[in-house]
Specification:
Strand content: 25-35%
Shape: globular
Largest sheet: 6 strands, antiparallel
Mean pLDDT: 92
Helix content: 25-40%
Distance between the termini: 34 Å
Number of helices: 3
Structural class: alpha+beta
């Protein structure tokens, strides 16, 4: 089984993340200033796969199979971001990349 963790720009971190941890981090990020209103979840298989959300609803993905490439998308609402993190936690990175590439 892979490891995962959640890191908040304001300093807190959580190991063995679940979707409730992510929902809480989203709510906390929205209350922070722009500099600290960011968090990311990393899933480590061979290397890190990272999904980062900022309070302006931008989400960036970096994946172990092509670390030099960032996938980025601005979302319309938190519900869409929660759905994306649900897919991310299943380790279906191809689907996450596809969602991040969609035009809105």
């Amino acid at each position: 089984m892979s490891e995962n963790y959640l890191q908040k720009a304001w300093g807190d971190s959580i190991d063995n993340v679940n979707i409730n941890d992510i929902k809480e981090a989203i709510n906390e990020a929205l209350k922070m200033d722009d500099e600290h209103g960011v968090f990311w979840v990393s899933i480590i298989i061979h290397d890190e796969n990272v999904l980062e959300m900022s309070k302006n609803l931008d989400v960036t993905g970096i994946f172990e199979d092509n670390n030099g490439l960032n996938y980025k998308r601005k979302f319309k609402n938190i519900k869409e971001i929660i759905s994306l993190y649900e897919v991310f936690l299943t380790e279906d990175f191809a689907s996450v990349k596809s969602i991040l590439k969609e035009k809105i």
